[in-house]
Design a protein that fits this description.
Layout lengths: L1 H39 L3 H5 L11 H11 L2 H32 L5 H11 L8 H10 L7 H4 L6 H14 L2 H9 L4 H12 L1 H17 L2 H6 L8 H6 L9 H31 L6
Helix pairs in contact: 1-14, 3-14, 4-8, 4-11, 11-14
């Protein structure tokens, strides 16, 4: 009896320790967003004070009004929403098709082509700026959102992620049975693979949407007119070389982060499901 009580106490102590670590991790994760909100709601003098303000002030609306007076905030948000949404949709379709082909089809040079695909993930994207910009100028896409959308619709990581997920979760026997019934390859993909890989879609959608929303370098190169700016390029214009209003800057940054939080909350359950798929086997 005493041994059972001792084991129960050790188990409860270990659980409390795990919960404590999770609580600390949650606080550390949420604190940057809270700190950004505090700075967005305070005057510049309160932010630069020693010690700085740790409680939200009353300047949130005024700071955001200053943002609106300096940049076309909602126009830039709309451009970013178009770019991130269309690119993400394209990546989900094209990468899942390519991943399905790599996972379930047999064709000459498949392994070599897949290795080449993995090698491209090791190449820094900055090395492709010049040839990519040359192609965009030849297509006359400068200052056009197509210059960001089209190159972003194929993603090597997306193909790799879909290939690995389909290989693990779509049985070959099910595909063979569908072929015997006379299903085409696309129908097998659409009716058999797609319903299974929805959690993988959610994970890839979150990753790609966040990447495109936060992308700065390539939009900075190809977008030069204010009407075509994405939100990250527009926020850069809030920085003055002489007087820096941190409250205004962080106000714009805070509201530009809200869509990302909403997207993550919408797909949070499927995101966790895709990461834990296969961790527990029956």
């Amino acid at each position: 009896m005493s041994k059972t009580i001792g084991k129960t106490r050790k188990l409860s102590i270990s659980k409390l320790f795990v919960y404590f670590l999770l609580l600390v991790a949650a606080i550390l994760s949420v604190f940057p967003f809270y700190w950004m909100f505090v700075m967005a709601a305070n005057h510049n003098s309160a932010i630069n004070a020693v010690p700085p303000a740790f409680i939200p002030g009353k300047q949130l609306v005024e700071n955001f009004q200053n943002v609106l007076s300096n940049i076309d905030f909602f126009g830039a948000m709309w451009n970013s929403l178009i770019v991130a949404s269309v690119t993400t949709a394209g990546v989900l379709i094209l990468c899942s098709l390519a991943g399905f082909a790599f996972a379930k089809f047999q064709f000459k040079g498949k392994n070599l082509l897949f290795i080449f695909l993995l090698v491209t993930m090791m190449v820094p994207p900055q090395l492709g700026l010049i040839p990519q910009y040359y192609i965009i100028t030849k297509l006359d896409w400068v200052n056009d959102l197509k210059a960001i959308i089209v190159p972003g619709m194929i993603d090597a990581f997306g193909i790799f992620w879909m290939r690995q997920y389909i290989s693990s979760n779509v049985p070959d026997e099910l595909i063979d049975a569908a072929k015997i019934d006379g299903c085409s390859n696309f129908r097998i993909y659409w009716n058999i693979a797609v319903p299974v890989i929805i959690p993988a879609f959610a994970t890839l959608a979150i990753i790609k949407f966040m990447y495109m929303w936060n992308d700065f370098l390539w939009p900075l190169v190809v977008l030069r007119e204010e009407s075509s700016y994405t939100i990250q390029i527009a926020l850069r214009n809030l920085i003055d070389n002489y007087v820096r209003d941190n409250g205004m800057i962080l106000s714009g940054t805070f509201w530009a982060t809200v869509p990302l939080i909403i997207i993550f909350l919408l797909f949070n359950r499927m995101f966790i499901q895709s990461l834990t798929q296969g961790a527990v086997k029956s």
